[in-house]
Design brief:
Largest sheet of chain B: 8 strands, mixed
Radius of gyration of chain D: 17 Å
CATH class of the largest domain in chain D: Alpha Beta
Chains: A alpha/beta, B alpha+beta, C mainly beta, D alpha+beta
Number of domains of chain D: 2
Mean pLDDT of chain B: 96
Number of helices of chain D: 3
Number of helices of chain B: 24
Largest sheet of chain D: 6 strands, antiparallel
CATH architecture of the largest domain in chain D: 2-Layer Sandwich
Oligomer: heterotetramer
Helix content of chain D: 10-25%
Low-confidence stretches of chain B: none
Shape of chain B: elongated
CATH topology of the largest domain in chain D: Gyrase A, domain 2
CATH superfamily of the largest domain in chain D: Probable tRNA modification gtpase trme, domain 1
Structural class of chain D: alpha+beta
Chain lengths: 418, 987, 95, 171
Amino acid sequence: MNHYSALSILRHGLTGNRHWSRAWRDPAPKPSYDVVIVGGGGHGLATAYYLAKEHGIRNVAVLEKGWLGGGNTGRNTTIVRSNYMMPGNTMFYERSMQLWENLSQDLNYNVMISQRGQYNLCHSPAQMDAARRRGNIMRANGIDAELFDRAEVMRRIPYLDYSENARFPIHGAIYQGRAGTARHDAVAWGYARGADKHGVDLIQQCEVVGYIWDKDRIVGVETTRGPIRAKKVALAVAGHTGHLAGKAGLRLPVETHVLQAFVTEPLKPMVDSVISFGAAHFYISQSDKGGLVLGGDLDGFNSYAQRGGLPIVEHTLHSAKALMPSLSRLRLLRHWAGVMDMSMDGSPIIGKMPVEGLWLNGGWCYGGFKATPASGYCFAWTIAKDEPHPDNAEFTLERFERGCQIDEKGAGPQPNAH
Amino acid sequence: MTARRLPSGGRIDRSRTIRVQFDGRSFVAHPGDTLASALLAGGQTLLARSFKYHRPRGLMAAGVEEPHALVHLRDGNRHEPNAQATMVEAFDGLKSTSQNAWPSLQFDVGAVNGLMSRFFGAGFYYKTFIGPLKGTGFWMFWERLIRRAAGMGRATTLDDPDHYEKINAFCDVLIAGTGPAGLAAALAAGRKGENVILVEQDHVLGGSLLNEQAGAPSDTWLSHAEAELRDLPNVRILSRTTAFGAYDTEVFGLVERFQDHVRAPEAGKPRQRYWLVRTKRAILATGAIERPMVFAGNDVPGVMLASAVRKYLNRYAVLAGKNVVVATNNDSAYTPALELAKAGAKVVICDLRRNIPAGLADSVKKAAIDLRLGQAVLKAEGGKSVRGTYIVPVDSNGRATAKGTRVICDLVAVSGGWAPALHLWSQRFGKPQYHASLDAFLPPAEKGAFLCVGSLAGAASLQEALSQGHAAGGSIGREPSLSGPDDFWGRDLMPVTVITKADGSTPGKAFVDFQHDVKLADVDQAYLEGYVSVEHLKRYTTSGMAADQGKTSNLNALARMATLRGMEIPSVGTTTFRPPYTPVAIGAIVGHDHGLYFRPTRLSTIHDWHKENAAEMIEAGAWLRPWYYPAKGENIRGAYIREAAHVREHVGIVDVSTLGKIAAQGPDTAEFLNRMYANGFKTLEIGRLRYGVMLREDGFIMDDGATARLGQNDYFMSTTTANAAKVLAMAEHLLQTAWRDLKVHVTTVTDQWAAIAIAGPKSRDLLTAVTKADLSKETLPNNHLAYVLVADVPCRLHRMSYSGELAYELYIPAKSGRKVWEALVAAGAPFNLKPYGTEAMGALRIEKGHVAGAEIEGRTTMKDLGLEAFASSKKPFVGSVLRKRPVLEDPKRPSLVGLEIIGNTGAKAGSLLFSLNGPTKGHGEGWVSSTTYSPALKKNIALALLARGPARIGETIQVVDFLGSQTLQAKVVSHHFFDPEGHRQNG
Amino acid sequence: MLRIHCPVCGLRDETEFTYGGDATMRRPDMTESDPKAWVDYVFIRDNPRGPHKEYWHHVTGCRQWLIVKRDTLTHEISGSYLAREVADLADEVAA
Amino acid sequence: MPAHGVTSDGAAVVINETNLGFLTQLAGWARFSEVADAALRAQSLSLSENFRVTVRRGMVTAWRIAPDRVLIRSDVKLSLESSDDLAVLDLSEARVCLTLEGAGAAGLLSRVIALDFSEAAFPVGTFAQTALHHVGVLVDRPGRDQFTILIPTTWTTSLIGLLTDHLARAA
């Protein structure tokens, strides 16, 4: 295993880059493990990493049906932030932010955390009030937040539409300076390399097709590479949670929906922070490579196809030009889609399931990427200790029958509204 | 490289001369040229600098696959970055400049990166800049510099002066591509009478036929075919149009570059048009893109695709070089080689294959071409222009087997086979099939409603392409017949494109992805590090992720990885293609839907009066509403306090037309309302009103409003402005599914009625004067309605109060809204009537303790908001079971209270509440939902949700606004601040 | 973009409709007082990967609620019905 | 109003707001066909089985807008009463009537409405309920180059603005 540093780059460069070793091993599955994590995305890999690092549980396998990081980890708009106001969410996402802030050093892998700040624009006095409530909760919990009036927003991001023509004038914005972006693929690879270093087996091209049961207890998984027994089976399969939980006889408060993302041709630096439009679901940032990364609404109907439609392309680009008229002559380079587990209140589920032997981490809606470190951290804790960490204590499956939905938007039990 | 324009030939209009500019230098061109062909004709071979190493780059291609020649186009507010010179039609006065180079294209400081390239390998950034300390500061310091160096073109922040349109189109068959196969398909389908949309990205039809020498036999067929198609009224031909995306249910997105080939669009013409096409079936005839080869120096200006060299020669009459090395692994490069020789170039062909078809060998011999079989270009030499090649004999893996020879040349024409342009197909259906003999991915000839024809489907000859097209179109009329050169690339291709030394390395940088500067060595390194799946390879090296989306690189990267892994290409995988096929301008997709037309605007029929009377307007969902009516020099605070005080003292009117209104009709309406609302509605009498609260299915409050019973079967529901559509949709859903037993119809009548609230102690007097009706307390008590005439307009008067004053809502036939409003204003003078806006309305309702959107925010229950008394316990209603879930019954939940702020400063909505001496940490004990200065109480007051709220009345608490650095104290009081007994509204 | 057949209006763009989710969920009777039944109805979904019966509201057209049979993996639509005309919402469209 | 102009294809259009007259919705339940048909016969009309075909006689027009609803435009107010089988609703104030005329009328509508306005797909004498810039409208085609659009009153200014914006940009 190479330690990464400027020095290692120098050394390998001088020897023709012919001696790099694998970032992670490619082991064959063993017959049994202490913990089998299903899903080799950011969450599954982070879980494995923290299981090994924090809890010393190293006899772990991560099973991935395709290639590591091939799901939503590699399909999102890379935004990280911790501006949540609902109890249960606030500190969870802040833990994630704090883990992000030192993640590159922790993993010895530059995941390119760029704390370039995020603006949530407000377009009415009511939105300003709601932003103030959110910001105050953040501040009272030790999280940075600022509220800007129109003049300040105009000074900071002058290229938005402040003209008479703006259909929804900008009244102000709530800003989190520590928010920003990360290099999404690097997050998966960094965790993979870290987990591997601690002895975790990362097994790609290994699809889970069913469970091994001992009476009514799950004791392993059936895979395309044979049966693998495990003391604990943990699912972290965003987009496919319902499908795999279904095989264990669980029905979930989750619908699977498709979410698109967009990138323009590469440009010299233009947008230096993350900006979220408040008049429609739309946000924009610029990647280090120069492409403007745009995000919008869900396509709106149940879908497992990693393919979006034109209505949302139009909706997103309408919003783009409405917010920033000069985008008009720039060109959309590519749009793609991922499938999201949209939960009934917009918040995730992390915990032990009513089926013995099964743990689940899912229902991330669009919040999954920014949650990756805390999700892995808390899920690992929950699996290792058989009880939730305080930061994920509210993310239970039972909250719906108990009446404590964590509904950040107040949109109600309508998955496509979150 | 010594390109020049030939004295004759080509498909350009030599009768006219135009001038184009590049980096301030002027070039002569002719209509029919592209910017690329004009620059090439003028000898400008250096056009760009590469992304990472800032290497000099020229033209590699002549079409959409061009990876190098991206330029800035036009200037000022029409400035546009990243334009492909090969796709820009030349027009007189065209201005272009180079990008990503400093201080100049010729001497670019960034080229120093090239010297450091051994350290900039795959994954460079992931391994460096991690920083010695904790935190993100170290990386972010470097990131600023890296961002500046990255990116390609520079964008303008000026508004786009041009306009765009969207057009909805429908057809029976959409045909993408007007090469021989596409035209044959269009002819057959057109003759059949199908509605055809025929799409061509070029400005002329013909596709690959245009690369034939002018005057070729196919020209006659082409002109006849085009003439016939243009005569068919059922065929719509869209040239300068790209089908950029294929979507579900046979929907295609096209962008027509309607006026992009001129300096500025003609007056009235959109720059581009976005066609949204719904078709029954699609015929894809999008052709194929030639593959480059991977060898050292394969990016040096002067190394071009053989097909591009041919296109420049035959279409633009530009001879790209005099001494040409043709490097190929298939037959298709022989035609350009022969044509180049004929045009006077000295040609050497090195073909990887040891044997070639006899016919080819003969013709080459006749043309005195130096043919070297079993050889390949190991290295192209040169900096800003190619100077020569190093040619070696190679084995079947593309490895040099012996020392080679140096051949001086000024042009290298390369063909590494062809890749069918299956992007549209793949966008829709995903993974295509790999065909080993063609070393290419191909779509199936037919899938769903898609047919693929021509080179896209691997047609082996011009005639086969025509036949496929003819059949796909419906085989109507005579099948076209044409013979072309016998040079099918797939006939005897040797599937090797990577040329290395015997040890597998390249003597210099060999590029796989040109635009992103991904080298063969980067692929090799990715392999070493285990990034071996095609998606890892792509993401780790960024191969295929540039603006050309890997049109020339995907297959070569894949092939290399397959070699390294010792696998077949399909086992390594293929990436699926994502729309758009080529980048599309954002403005084109937006059309008119920006600025004021980003979303439609909803206006009350009284709107113009408000504007004429200087109201400040405010967005409320899609509506604009009067916010306040400032007197001269008055700010919002002054205005709302004055307006609210005026209502309490005299009388005011406010436009409430935005309230949602629903007609609920039918014999079972009472039962329907009884189920919809938490309140009982069975006993509501005709002529009476009742306030109601409606829950979501999960038991949280959804909306509130008053319902009037107008007749036996006839009810009038009102909703909040925000929730009107949601309530109607839910009612329709229940009535059409679970409650089909109910004979009820609901219809929106929001637009049928304008509405004005008249509030204040003088409201009855005013209305009596205006209506001449008896509106006394006895005839029209609170929560009753009456039918009145105002200015001869028959209206309905609801007596109900939101402000807590004696108040009415007047429902007016919408189109008479302004007339009635003006009648009230006119008659109001003696009563000192003033209009008021939503801000004063808010102040009044807060004084009265009524909840609104800030309290009904999707997470509050009836209990939370002190509305429990309205919930009937005698009947089930929507949400009645789930509202009783355990956590929702917890008395510790934040519940509605009033706050009297101590001191002279008002609290801000969104402030948090804490116990007086408790810590100000965490989520607090509640929050301030709505605030106002109360003119009636002469105090700053607020509505708030406070844990165990009602039990804490009398307590003093802290109100903290961290964001505004403000800590206040407030007394917890009942939210019914003003006239809690309702004397005024019931008076 | 989906093109959805409305039995009243004909084949229309998805943009004329709003989505209403799983149509196999049967709303408990109004008199049902067991919270479990309501929790199930309101929150819990089968969320199938493949054939799906779902509500669409033709909101800018005839304002009818439809039940559409659509595959969540391929997006292929294989039938649409007026919700009001389907006798038993859970079972009828199974054919 | 009227607004004269051309589309970007150069085809002429005239947009005009005309008097709607009276608009009445009849809705019903199981006996709707029978009851509505009877009510329509009083106006010398009949209930169409078809949701596309406009039924017109003289100054009275009927559109079957849903299985159990029909919308009637008339020059005089209809004297109909609600009953247990029929719900009568006056919507005269809830819609504004816009006419588009000229060779460019269909082309202009194609730019703002997702429908096929070719004569084969949208024959003269038919109608459709659809979305114009996200707003539900009813489009009727009394003549080849002639369209009538019923727009919800409060959206009218905005939608006319969008239509005339197309003409203004194309001017």
